[in-house]
Amino acid sequence: MSKVHASATEALAGLLKNDMLILSGGFGLCGIPSALIAAIREAGVTGLTIVSNNAGIDGVGLGVLLETKQVKKMVSSYVGENKLFMQQFLANELEIEFNPQGTLAERIRAGGAGIPAFFTRTGYGTAVAEGKETREFDGHWYVMERGIFGDLAVIHAWKGDTEGNLIYRKTARNFNPMMATAAKATVAEVEELHEPGGFDPDHIITPGIYVQRIVKLDAVDKRIEQRTTRKRAA
Predict the structure, then answer these.
(1) Does residue 173 lie within any of the structural domains?
(2) Which of 91, 134, 150, 218 could cysteine-pair with 21, CB 3.0–4.6 Å?
(3) Where, by residue number, does the polypeptide cross the bilayer (predicted)?
């Protein structure tokens, strides 16, 4: 059966349901699966728990799911660019589970590797450790963190082939490869779609075995969160 689908909506057909756990790739607005996020919005599923580095910005990225109040909980390491997120959180309309960024990355990697939990020194003695098991190893205290394995991962890649093998471009790789391994189903949107055998095997970052569905983007909207410029020299 072909993994390639004609649209993001078609690629997600039959995979979405209320109250599911979705991993969404990207860092800030870099490497985010914008088309797939838009398709999730169109589907209207609610009560979602989203695992992502951030919650996007107002009206962009995961921010569009906040507008429709489809997100129940965010598991993130940073949410500071989104005013709507702040408003919903302060109104008790949205839950947040903060993770140190390295801890979040390792929780996802562990989930993809079948590791249910691990110990880390990061967060010990802070609010991050509240309610969690702690243990001493070699004279240092550690916090136990659970691995994350979701119902669905939506990711963005630079190049893909019809077998689902993926290549990412520079820093747009970020959380995408580890999330591809850490869900029951992974759907990838790609900027370029190639036939099998077109990639040097050493360049493939995500093997196709992790990817169930793939969609080629007609256009890619790459935004910059904060643009800093300087005046031209005279």
Answers:
(1) yes
(2) 150
(3) 20-40
Tokens read off for 28: 């800030």
Q: Give the chain's length.
A: 234
The residue-averaged pLDDT of 30-43 equals 97
pLDDT at 106: 98
* Structural domain total, the chain: 1
Higher per-residue pLDDT: 21 or 230: 21
How many whole angstroms separate alpha carbon 74 and alpha carbon 96?
5
Residue 182, C-beta contacts closer than 8 angstroms, at least 6 positions apart: 23, 108, 109, 111, 112, 147, 148, 149, 150, 153
The rounded distance, in Å, linking the Cα atoms of 188 and 216 is: 9
- The CATH number of whichever domain residue 177 belongs to comes to 3.40.1080.10
**Whole-model pTM above 0.90?**
yes
Whether the CB-CB separation of 186 and 215 falls below 8 Å is answered with: no
Q: Are 9 and 39 in contact (CB under 8 A)?
A: yes
pLDDT of residue 138: 98
Report the SS3 class of residue 97: strand
121 backbone φψ class: left, alpha, beta (φ>0; ψ -120 to 50): alpha
Structure tokens at 222: 């790459």
